[in-house]
Amino acid sequence: MTRTKVIITDKQKEIKIPSGIRMLIRRACNAVLKLENFEGPAEINVTFVDDEEIRQLNHKYRNIDASTDVLSFPMGKDGQYDINPETGLKMLGEVVISIPHAVSQANEYGHSLQREIAFLTVHSVLHLLGYDHSNGGIEAVRMREKEETVLTQLGLPRTASYYMEEL
Known about the structure:
The chain is built from five helices and six strands; from the N terminus they run βαβαββββααα. The protein is of the alpha/beta class. It has a single domain (about 5-155), classed as Collagenase (Catalytic Domain), CATH 3.40.390.30. A four-stranded mixed β-sheet has the order 1-2-6-3. The protein has a two-stranded antiparallel sheet with strand order 4-5. The longest helix has 17 residues, at about 135-155. The protein is globular. It starts with a strand and ends in a 14-residue tail after the last helix.
């Protein structure tokens, strides 16, 4: 199996990260790379932040002055990645997750924090590999199908509780 190094950093102090989350993130990263038949060893950085830090990053890099759930910072383009000279691994990029935002969304959608963090990780790793859903259409549908395939493989399938009823 291809070697993948997932470096996880917790920069927020607001919420204690539940046990097992780090292993789940590593499994999610590996599952996406396997689904995509990614060639070679890879390195992915995942950072947990609070809403204020992700708001600042969103403003700095996307010119959107609001917090968000996750940001992806790809380091490659068209399948070409820089190699970390210390490890020899392809540097895919960084995933930044707002833990308070993830907790809020897990409650809003009626599923576990584990599923929410796994979803955000899978979603972002697909972005690191070049997927983009911003224009909608078939690419957004393909991305969502891949997300659900990986989450099902991880034992976190979509349930009926995801659909909010209109009042």
